[in-house]
Design a protein that fits this description.
five-stranded antiparallel sheet, disordered N terminus, 258 residues, globular, 9 strands
């Protein structure tokens, strides 16, 4: 099976069939399910559907618009079996794995509503970032903050508002390679984790959760692995819709120093 065929995840290219909007169901997915589904979606589906789920005509995941699905069970079945006589081929996923993708698609529906339902205020967003949100305990903005997470000084010039919202409500959905952590098991049995910074022939540099810069001799490492999940918590249930919109407006305004 070609990768692109699997990437055409939920499309049904039948012009005569009108798109339908899935009504919200009672199912409440766990954050771990959403994160797992986000990783599968990013690696398998974005080639055709795009990161926002609007890459196929008549289908928009962020708006809950599909051509042939009226329930989560329908979505799982389509992901697993594909749609005959369309570019949507069977993916080979198990029903359990397909269900995590559905969980992620549901999360895509939530984020745009938060953006559209509340107009953000950058000044209020700054207060939340520096206070209740505790964002500066891991991120830097200008000269403020710590370094366990990526710097946000020019994040508004790099990411769209929808991407910023997704990072707040589903931080594990997409972890950029440059932001991944590393897990080291030392020869003495000790485990070290942190955000990867750099390496040379003899050492590896990372910064841990306490903002401590570490330079570790490679000869003392027994095994190493990249951490593909995000240590950042989801703010979906920690902040109100208005507070999330305010943060997004503030982050979008950060375009670096002149």
């Amino acid at each position: 099976m070609k990768k692109r065929s699997g990437a055409v995840l939920l499309a049904a290219f039948v012009p005569a069939l009108a798109a339908t909007t899935l009504s919200a169901q009672q199912t409440r997915y766990l954050p771990a399910e959403v994160e797992a589904g986000g990783r599968v979606y990013t690696s398998t589906c974005t080639g055709c559907h795009g990161p926002d789920g609007d890459g196929v005509g008549g289908v928009n995941f962020s708006q809950g618009r599909y051509r042939r699905a009226t329930s989560d069970d329908d979505l799982v079945r389509i992901i697993v079996r594909g749609i005959p006589n369309t570019p949507m081929a069977p993916t080979g996923m198990s029903e359990g794995q397909a269900a995590t993708v559905v969980a992620y698609l549901r999360s895509l529906e939530a984020a745009p509503r938060v953006v559209s339902e509340a107009t953000g205020d950058a000044a209020r967003g700054r207060s939340v970032v520096e206070g209740k949100g505790q964002c500066l305990t891991c991120h830097t903005i200008g000269i403020k903050g710590l370094h366990a997470g990526p710097a946000l000084t020019d994040i508004g010039a790099q990411r769209r508002m929808i991407d910023l919202m997704q990072s707040l409500v589903n931080p594990g959905g997409e972890v950029r390679p440059e932001n991944r952590g590393v897990r080291l098991v030392m020869k003495d049995g000790k485990t070290v984790t942190g955000r990867f910074l750099n390496q040379d022939t003899f050492s590896l540099q990372l910064i841990d959760s306490t903002d401590k810069l570490l330079s570790i001799d490679k000869s003392s490492i027994r095994e190493s692995s990249l951490v593909t999940t995000s240590p950042m918590p989801s703010y979906r249930d920690k902040l109100t819709s208005q507070e999330l919109a305010d943060i997004v407006s503030y982050l979008a305004s950060l375009e670096g120093r002149p």
